[in-house]
Amino acid sequence: MGRHGGSHAKERAAKPAKAFAKAPAGAPARKQPKPPAKKTVWQLIRTGLSMGLFGIVLALMIVAVIIPKVTGATPLTVLTSSMEPGLPPGTLLIVEPVDTNTIQIGDVVTYQIESGQPAVVTHRVTAVASSTTGERTFTFKGDNNDAEDPPVIAEQIQGRLWYSIPVVGYASTIINGPYRAVIIPVVAGAMLLYAAVSITIGLVAASKKRRANTRRADASLAAVISDAPGARDTPGARDSSGAPDSAVASEPA
């Protein structure tokens, strides 16, 4: 029997859990995730120049090689100054097939110097005439020449100027010259290699960026969890008597 005539238990109220635990003195501060590295000005300039150069080369290949091949036009290079200032030496001419009945004064036309021979001239039409038999003849003159060319018949006409590109004619002469079989595959291979390297670099950079973003997200999530209320509570906290907070103590009988 106890002093109060029996044994009974008193339930001790549990201590409220601590919301936050103070970090021990001298504990190192948690490292903050580093912001993503930004490209330097030089990297941006280099990337822009590289992409611009690739775009220019690709555009020139299209207008100087692909379009003429697809449309049946002929690329020619201006070698003399007879058509200056509009068509100086080195200009690439793209000459398209033409119906001679549609040729008018002022057109720039390419014709054979001698019928059936490969040598050609590209000059401006200054006169169109018809013979008694109905055959049309054309008179040409270079914009920078003083004298007109001898009359030309329809069979000598090779085509009419479609468009021109300054300076590129020299490159076209090399590409379409005796080394064409070697130059075109080399240029095409170099462009494909450049494209492959650029794509690979882009994929690697994108992969690194994704991994960096994942690490930053994981670090941020860990920081949020560690700072959440109750995350740092001491489990199984005991009171001054050494008994767990939730334990039931009995008075001696």
TrEMBL record:
The keyword Membrane appears for this protein: yes
Q: Name one GO molecular function term.
A: serine-type endopeptidase activity
Segments carrying the region annotation (Disordered) are: 1-38, 224-253
Enzyme Commission number: 3.4.21.89
- Print the keywords alphabetically: Membrane, Transmembrane, Transmembrane helix
Q: Where in the cell is it found?
A: Membrane
Lineage, top-rank taxon, reads: Bacteria
Q: Which BP terms in the Gene Ontology apply to this protein?
A: signal peptide processing
Annotated Gene Ontology cellular components are: membrane
The Low complexity compositionally biased stretches are 16-30
List all membrane-crossing ranges.
Answer: 44-67, 182-206
Provide the top EC class. Answer: hydrolase
Domain (Peptidase S26) ranges = 58-128
Chief location of this protein? membrane
**Entry annotated with the keyword Acyltransferase:** no
Q: Which PANTHER family match?
A: SIGNAL PEPTIDASE COMPLEX CATALYTIC SUBUNIT SEC11
Q: What is this protein called?
A: Signal peptidase I
- Organism annotation: Glaciihabitans tibetensis
The record lists the lineage as: Bacteria, Bacillati, Actinomycetota, Actinomycetes, Micrococcales
